[in-house]
Amino acid sequence: MATEGRYSGAVALGAGVGPSARLTVMSKQVEPPGTGDTVMSIVEDLGAGRGPSWLDAWLGDKADVVIGWRRHIHAHPEPHRHEHATTEYIVNVLRAAGLRPEVLPVGTGVICEVGSGPRCVALRADIDALRLPELTDLPFASTVEGVCHACGHDAHTAALLGAALALACAPELPGRVRLVFQPAEEEPGGALDVLAAGALDGIERIFGLHCDPRLQVGRIGTRVGAITSATDLLELRVTSPGGHTSRPHLTADLVYALGLVITGLPALLARRVDPRSGTVLTWGAVDAGEAFNTVPEKGVLRGTLRTSDQEVWVGSEVLVWELVSALLAPTGVGFDLDHRRGAPPVVNDAESTRLLCAGVEAALGQDALASTKQSSGGEDFGWYLEHVPGSFARIGVWSGAGPMSDLHRPTFQLDERALPVGVRVLVHAALAALA
Fold first, then answer.
1. Which pTM was predicted?
2. H or E stretch including 239?
3. CA 251/CA 256 separation, integer angstroms
4. What's CA 114's distance to the chain center, in Å?
5. For 401-425, how does the pLDDT look when each residue is reduced to its tens digit (9 = 90+)?
6. Distance of alpha carbon 427 from alpha carbon 170, whole angstroms
7. Domain 230-340 has CATH 3.40.630.30
8. Was domain 23-227+346-434 assigned CATH 3.40.630.10?
9. pLDDT tens digit string along 95-119?
10. For the chain, where do the domains classified as CATH 3.40.630.10 start and end?
11. Where does CATH 3.30.70.360 sit in the chain?
12. Using omega within 30 degrees of 0 as the cis cutoff, is the peptide bond preceding 52 cis?
C-alpha cells in the first residue's frame, strides 16, 4: 500500500489457511478463499441493480462468499487483543485478491488500501468478539467456549472485506480507500493502536457501520452530532478502622459513607453539568462487609459514567474527584478513586454524514435512510473523529418478523441480508466522499 512504510512493524503471516471446502449455492459451486463453511443458499441482495455495474456483478457472483466469511469468523471468535487467527484470515482473503494488507505493529488488526491518487478516505470495521457464551442453535455457532460475536463484529468484518474486494475490481476509482480492520473495540484501545501506527495519516474522512437489531434490514440509521456516549469506569475503594455497630462514633462508618456516594454523587452531578449533555452515572456493583454487627474495614463501589458531551467528558474526572471528596470528608473514611477513561463520544460531522446519506441513497434508495437516536453506549470510533471528520451509522439487522435479539446477549442473531447491504453502503460512502 502507498503509505511510505508506516507499517514496517507488520507481522509476517503464512499464505495458507488450510483446505477450502466448496460452497454449494443454488446451482453453482464457488471456491471462497479461506473458508470451510457451506452456505446452502444465497441471501437476497436488497440493492441489486442500483449499480455501479461492477459492484452489481461482484455481489451477484460473490455475495455467498461474503456470507461464508461471516460464518467462519462467527464460528471462530477471538476476544480483544487475541484476534490473531482472525487477523490471519483477513490477511489471506485480501492477499488472495491481489491486495497488499499489512498487520498493525501490535500484532492484530489489518490495514489495506485500494485505488490510487492523492486523495484517500477510510472505512473501518472492528474484528474482536465478546467474552460471552453463545446460546443459539446456529450451525456455525461459536466453537470457542465463553466467547462469541454477540455484537455483530463478524458481520462488520465480512462487509468490509466485501467492500475491499468489490472496490478492487472497479475499472477505476476516484482516489484511494483505506480499509481499517480494527482490533480491541469491546474493551476500548484498538482505535488508539490504529492511530499510533499512523493509519489515519492523510485521510480526509472515515466511515463506519454498526449492527442495530432494532432497525429492519435494508435501513441505515444516520445522525448528525453525538450518536454514542463517552463511557468511563469508576471504582471507589474506601477504608475504615472497623469496629462494632453498637459504637459507630468510635470508628468511621464505611457502609454509611458508601451510601452517601451511591445516592449523592449522581444527584450532585445532575446539578453540576448541563442536563442537555446526556450525562448518566449508574452504579453496577457494591461490596462491603459480611457480619450484620460489624463495621467493615474496606468496601468497593463500581459504576459507569456516560456522557454525549465532549466538554463534559473532558472535565468529568476533576469534577467527580471534587464531589466524592466533599461527600466523604465528614465521614472520616479513607478512599481511593480510580477513574478509568473510556473512549470519547462519537460525534458525527455534518458534511461527512451528508456524504454518507448520499451513499446510502445511491446504494439502496431514499427509503433506506432512517433517523437514529443518540445512545448511551460507548464506541471507540470516537477517537478517530478527534483526528479526522467522519460519520458512524447503524445498519439494520432485524428481519422484520419475530423478536429483536439485542446486542451483547448470548442469543443475538442477525439477518444475513444485511451483509450485501453493508458492502453496498461502504462502497458508496467511499465513492461519495471521493467524488
1. 0.87
2. strand 230-239
3. 12
4. 23
5. 988 889 999 999 999 999 999 999 9
6. 11
7. no
8. yes
9. 999 999 999 999 999 999 999 999 9
10. 23-227+346-434
11. 230-340
12. yes
